[in-house]
Design brief:
408 residues; alpha/beta; Rossmann fold; 13 strands; 42% helix; elongated
């Protein structure tokens, strides 16, 4: 008898970017893996064929990023229920906020199959300092949905502390993992010669200070505050001729960011690299990276930078608190204060060669606890328990086989 598990997320590229290690673990345990997602949701690169080559069955559902798009999400819920029934899904692993909502509602509604429900929260929306609405509404929603959750997985200490107050299903377990896992085969310091060649190809001079952001161009990633900092430095007549700020990513704020660059006269300082599937070599060329997000569940871009020996100019949030040590592996500042980012930029500019070498070593060391081997070990434990419970159900003797019937 086959074992079927469903992975659920809003956008189809989520699995390729973040869940390939989990897919490998599940396949080793003999699971048939289904992936329910919105294939029509716009993405910069299509990974559909790559996912199918992994042996994963993809199913389109009308799931929307916003929980308030009720028509789409109600249709997606019905499609989920049909999938669960059609393939006799025995476990659902939900990701992304709306995926977590619909997956757990589906689990509640199909009690005849009673699939095990796993939810990985990549950052609760009721984080410390979040809007009052988030703390009043999203907290209550997560608290209620926890009642339908067998395994709840979080990626930072603040969320773990909050989740400890939830009541999971009887026998349910709470875990904390160090994110999706850092691939140290990809993210490691570049040899100086290679770094110099790549900087030259990017048009970055040997004596330039190269600052880099990696992330989608949206409000949360908060690129504006870095541009404001550079603009303020220019207004203060500080020499920016040797400062270059690169941004890897694309998104709906692309036009606005271009407009700010032009309005503030930063065309010579700022480079928009666009969406890149491989950022490690560009990142390895940077003198420092910027993670200016208003909120992060963990912030893999920051960890990838540290693993490459590149210090981080980080906004203080629950994600960066997991690995940033102010003055040791970077500079931590308030997320909406341009003056604080100016102070951070000037901190890096003042570093001498010996200090740069020391901070580079500390960066690499601070990233080690987030290696994917540690995440994989915890996920192996989680999936092994899920597998045990599923097989126990599958091979549990029926009532009539538990008793001997015959003559006296």
């Amino acid at each position: 008898m086959e074992k079927h598990i469903l992975i659920l997320a809003t956008t189809h590229d989520f699995l390729w970017k973040f869940e390939r290690e989990d897919v490998n673990l599940l396949q080793q345990m003999g699971f048939v893996i289904h992936y329910a997602t919105n294939i029509k949701e716009p993405t910069y690169v299509s990974y559909k064929k790559d996912i199918q080559r992994m042996g994963v069955q993809i199913h389109h559902i009308e799931i929307a990023r916003s929980p308030f798009l009720l028509r789409d999400n109600c249709k997606a819920l019905q499609q989920l229920l049909q999938l669960i029934d059609r393939y006799s899904i025995q476990a659902i692993h939900c990701h992304t906020p709306v995926g977590g909502l619909l997956g757990r509602l589906a689990g509640r509604l199909c009690r005849n199959l009673s699939p095990l429900i796993l939810y990985t929260a990549h950052g609760f929306h009721f984080y410390r300092g979040s809007p009052l609405f988030n703390r009043l509404v999203y907290y209550q929603v997560e608290k209620k949905l926890a009642n339908d959750t067998d395994v709840l997985i979080v990626i930072n200490g603040e969320d773990f502390k909050a989740a400890q107050k939830f009541h999971l299903k009887p026998g349910g377990r709470l875990y904390q993992i160090p994110g999706v896992g850092l691939d140290q085969n990809v993210f490691h310091p570049l040899p100086d010669q290679r770094r110099n060649v790549l900087r030259d190809q990017l048009g970055i001079g040997n004596h330039d200070f190269f600052l880099l952001s990696v992330g989608e161009l949206n409000e949360n990633k908060n690129h504006r505050v870095v541009l404001e900092a550079l603009a303020e430095m220019k207004r203060q007549h500080k020499d920016l001729s040797h400062i270059r700020y690169g941004i890897c990513g694309d998104g709906f704020l692309h036009g606005r960011i271009q407009q700010w660059i032009q309005e503030w006269g930063l065309e010579k300082q700022v480079i928009l690299f666009g969406y890149r599937t491989q950022v490690s070599e560009i990142l390895g060329c940077a003198d420092a990276s910027v993670l200016s997000s208003k909120r992060e569940g963990l912030g893999m871009a920051g960890l990838e930078s540290l693993a490459m020996g590149v210090p981080v100019l980080a906004a203080d949030n629950r994600g960066t608190r997991e690995y940033m040590v102010h003055g040791q592996n970077g500079f931590v500042c308030e997320r909406n204060e341009a003056a604080a980012f100016i102070e951070g930029i000037e901190f890096f500019l003042r570093l001498g060669p010996e200090e740069r070498a020391m901070i580079r070593d500390r960066c690499c060391e601070s990233a080690k606890p987030f290696a994917k081997a540690y995440t994989n070990a915890i996920m192996q434990e989680i999936y092994a328990e899920v597998n045990r419970r599923i097989e126990q159900r599958m091979y549990k003797p029926s009532y009539k086989n538990q008793h001997h019937h015959g003559g006296i």
